Amino acid sequence: MSLVNQSIVQANSGLKAKKFSALELTEACLREIEGHNSRINAYVTVTKKDALESARQVDKKIASGESIGMLEGIPMAIKDIINVQGIRTTCGSPGLRDFVSPYDATVVSKLKHAGMVLLGKTNCDEFACGSSTEHSCFGPTRNPRDETRVAGGSSGGSAAAVAKNMAFYALGTDTGGSIREPASFCGIPGLKVTYGRVSRFGVTAMASSWDTVGHFARTVEDLAHVLKEIAGHDVYDSTTSQVKVPDYTALLTGSVSGLRIGVPKEYFEGAIDPEVKETVWRAIRQLETMGALVQEISLPMTRYAVALYYILTPAELSANLARFDGIRFGSKPTNEADDLVDYYFKQRAQGFGDEIKRRIMIGTYVLSAGYYDAYYSKAQKVRTKIIQEFDEAFKEVDVICSPVAPMPAFKIGEKTQDPLAMYLADAMTIPINTAGIPALAVPCGETKSGLPIGLQIMGPQFEEGRVLLVGDALEKRIKA
Amino acid sequence: MSLSGDQVRHVAKLARLALSEVEVVKFSKQLSAVLDYMAILNEVDTEGVAPTSQVTGLKNVDRVDEIKFLGCEPNDLLKCSPLPVQDDQIKVKSVF
Fold first, then answer.
1. Which of B55, B91, B96 to mutate to test binding with chain A, by most A CBs within 10 Å of its CB?
2. Mutate to test the interface with A, among B38, B45, B49, B72 (most CBs of A within 10 A)
3. Domain spans of chain A?
4. Which tens digit of pLDDT belongs to each residue from A358-384?
5. How far B51 CA sits from the closest chain A CA (Å)?
6. Is the ipTM beyond the 0.90 threshold?
7. What residues of A are in contact with residue B79 (Cβ under 8 Å)?
8. Which fold has domain A3-258+443-452?
9. Does the annotation count A402 as an active-site position?
10. pLDDT value, residue B1
11. Contact A102 B49 (CB under 8 A)
């Protein structure tokens, strides 16, 4: 094992035992970034000087005999849609290339307090809209396992950074699968939390009734350690919950004995890659041999999730992105505007990429007079039915297991000209955001050609501990 | 359902997006395909079903109207503007 491919837990014990310093750990990660980032394109901003300085501070603390926390001195990365004071937050958007955030997001303040060493900001689809990180003004992030393929998206840079040992953990956001899909494509664990479990203050809003902040790491146990630091109520985000944050790591007992696992047949039908289907079922059978009780269930509303998602989230996005008018932040149009409205037209034409323009127009259309009832209101009602279906299912089972995506990582450029094909890549992750429940993506095998496949483990709202327990138990069994 | 070029232009106008003619043709085709796909929602009987806009059951979260945030100053926010600032206000183009 090298310095850079350890887990957080291993790195923490190494730091405490003075086997290596936080500076050495950080320098090792920076060397990986220097060696790979020009090809992988995981980072859009590298904060080398600040990272080295943060590491030195932790080393001073260790040298003076003070105890350190689990995340202290651990090098990490943040998706470039989350504000860090004094560093640019581009959101992968041409209109925000030079926007420097004047304040820290709450998750960032919390992790600074926990002693993070920030290596930089990671690439993502523009305003987190996409499933491949190809809709970024910085170009696509490449999959470390096969560089001709996408890393997934929208948090593709964060996933690739962790998978390629360029960070120990990384923050992302998940509105319809933007953490789980890239985690699955890159072969690492990633957690989508319950809506309102982690503060979104300082995170650029995409679709406000869907967005969540979560993270990637090298092990499920590491995910639990990071979640403990970032979860909880925030006065600056009124959608955060007052539900108590448990000690997630204490819940990782390794035992799934008697746990009821539901396997929804709809997630294994239709256009699913046969190798994905087989590998995910093998993982579920593995959990069964460990004592879990597996039963097939039916979630017939699953097939409507993508359609309702691409009505409701563009509607919310079109409202949220109205603020990007080049007045208070962002760039201004390169050509002179005649008046204020002309300024808006010119700036928004230059400041947004194609996918954002498409979604703003879909959102504007479904909210406009005459179409609101047929699209927006209808979709909100179908959303209720999907929630009810999950509620019923969780009366019978403790967790639900499925593939994360119907296919492994696809080729760069394969879906960029066909927006609908790209949207369907999220068919198995979107229902989870629709209901606001947590779900974990955990690697469970690979295709014959070596592409990673992820298992998705869903739980009821605020039961992150339960999905982490199942993922941790499976991961340890697979690695054993 | 297909979205005509005129409809695309109208929606783009509502959203304050200037589009080229090439974009109008491209988006008309792409958005029509997406809207067609959404028709599957009509298969779902939603008679008497309440719409959902919030998933964790929170309602009317309010607080005292005080600014407690110390993360940055108003001046730091004004510095983010690409436009000139005068008397703590951003100077924009005239409305007409």
1. B55
2. B38
3. 3-258+443-452
4. 999 999 999 998 999 999 999 999 999
5. 4
6. yes
7. 102
8. Amidase signature (AS) enzymes (3.90.1300)
9. no
10. 67
11. no
Question: Which secondary-structure segment (H or E) carries A78?
Answer: strand A75-79
Tokens at A404, concatenated: 């994360």
Greatest CA span in chain B, whole angstroms? 57
Backbone dihedral angles phi then psi of residue A399, each to the nearest 5 degrees: -135, 165
Put simply, whether B75 touches A (Cβ < 8 Å) is no
Active site includes A54? no
- Among A325, A350, A100, residue whose Cα is nearest residue B79: A100
Tell me if residue A178 is catalytic. Answer: yes
- The token duo for A464 is 């992150």
Marked catalytic residue, from A54, A79, A199, A318: A79
B41 Cβ contact partners less than 8 Å away, ≥ 6 residues apart:
A304, A307, A308, A311, A378, A379, A382
Is pTM beyond 0.90? Reply is: yes
**Cβ atoms within 10 Å of A64's Cβ, excluding its own:** 7
pLDDT (0 to 100) of residue A322:
97
> Which domains does chain B possess?
5-43 (1.10.20)
User: For residue B96, how many other CB atoms are within 10 A of its CB?
Assistant: 7
- Whose tokens are 């993508």? That residue is A306
Choosing among A197, A241, A365, which should be mutated to test the B contact, i.e. which has the most B CBs within 10 A? A365
Q: Chain A residues with CB inside 8 Å of B80's CB?
A: 99-100, 102, 328-329
| pLDDT at site A98 | 94
Say whether pLDDT at A480 is over 90.
no
> Is the CB of B64 inside 8 Å of chain A's CB atoms?
no
Q: Using CB atoms, pick whichever of A238, A327, A382 lies closest to residue B92.
A: A327
Asked if B56 reaches chain A (Cβ–Cβ under 8 Å), the answer is yes
Q: Of A21, A131, A136, A154, which one is the catalytic site residue?
A: A154
H helices of A64-105, where?
Answer: none
Q: Percent of chain A scored above 90 by pLDDT?
A: 96
Question: Is B79 close to A337, i.e. CB distance below 8 A?
Answer: no
pLDDT at A354: 96
End-to-end Cα distance, chain A: 16
Min distance B10 CA to chain A CA atoms (Å): 9
Nearest to B16 among A241, A344, A385 (CB): A344
Q: What is the mean pLDDT of residues A326-341?
A: 95
- Burial (Cβ within 10 Å: 0-12, 13-18, ≥19) of residue A257: exposed
- Cβ atoms < 10 Å from Cβ of A286: 18
Cβ atoms of A158 and A170 closer than 8 Å? yes
Among A154, A446, A455, A463, CA closest to A313: A154
Neighbours of A57 (CB within 10 A): 14
Using the Cβ of B70 and the Cβ atoms of chain A, whether some distance falls under 8 Å is answered with no
Contacts A194 to B, Cβ<8 Å: 56
Beta bridge partners of A215: A171, A191
For chain B, which residues score pLDDT lower than 70? 1
- pLDDT, tens digit, 9 for 90 and up, residues A217-251: 999 999 999 999 999 999 999 999 999 999 999 99
Whether residue A23 is predicted with pLDDT greater than 80 in this model: the reply is yes
